[in-house]
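Slide 14.
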Amino acid sequence: MKMDQMKLDESERDLRVKDMKSEEAVGPVRQPFLIKSCEQGASNIGKPYLNISLADETGVIDARKWEIKPGDLDLFRPNTILMIDGTIIRYKGKNQVKINRASPVDMNTIDRSRFVPHAPLTSQQLKDQVVALVESIVDPQIKAVVKGVMNDTWKSYSTYPAAVTVHQAYETGLIYHSLCVCKIACAIVDLYPGVFHRDYVVAGTLLHDIGKVQELSGPVGTKYTRIGKLESHIQIGAMIVNRKCLELGLDQEKTDLLTHIILSHHGLPEYGSAVRPKTADAFLVHLADDADAK
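Slide 15: predicted structure.
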């Protein structure tokens, strides 16, 4: 390890970002933060400085580094965790951090979940519950489609947020939202035996937002991608599912029914839905999605 690379001492982590915004928090600070964003600005006299957003799982706080050194722009890369030496100051009624010095930390000592908002379940818990639901699908063809799509997209599906800002906009939000929608829908399926087809409901809920693995850029600094802006997750997801159905040789009816659930899960065209739900299963997926998202 390089001499300027500090090993994280958990005892140094005294404040969470949410606690740093009160007047009582003003004072020196030395602890690690996630660099959420970094842009170069210029003062009123034209002197360059860095405008930085520092984050942990509880929130984001503004920071400034007034003295820029060679290599600072590379050091303060978004999605990097750095040890920050500075001072919490109050400026125009809000707290911000004046950064004096920053150094890399030993990433082997870092629990990344402490620096980004995340679902209330661990990654392993999310995986275990989703796998159990997939295994509960009786139809082998429908199960194969769900497994195939998840195998192709798991890294993104299991880490991406469910949205940029609206709902579950945090790391692992996509899989958590999908799991919650599935649980809501399955509870309704159990209340009304014979009304719904559970296999389609489980497959549809778990895959309804699968297009977000291409619509969104990733779990940190999430933005809409080019294809996301052009086509939206509904169309992207329908194509992902439809291609997997064709690849695995599903009959046309099953392919159409699964694809329809993805295309219609927003309910109304004015909310982005390509079509209105036209089956009981598609309508249920829409209702469960709407309930969890709001």
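Speaker note: The chain has two domains: 10-114, 123-293.
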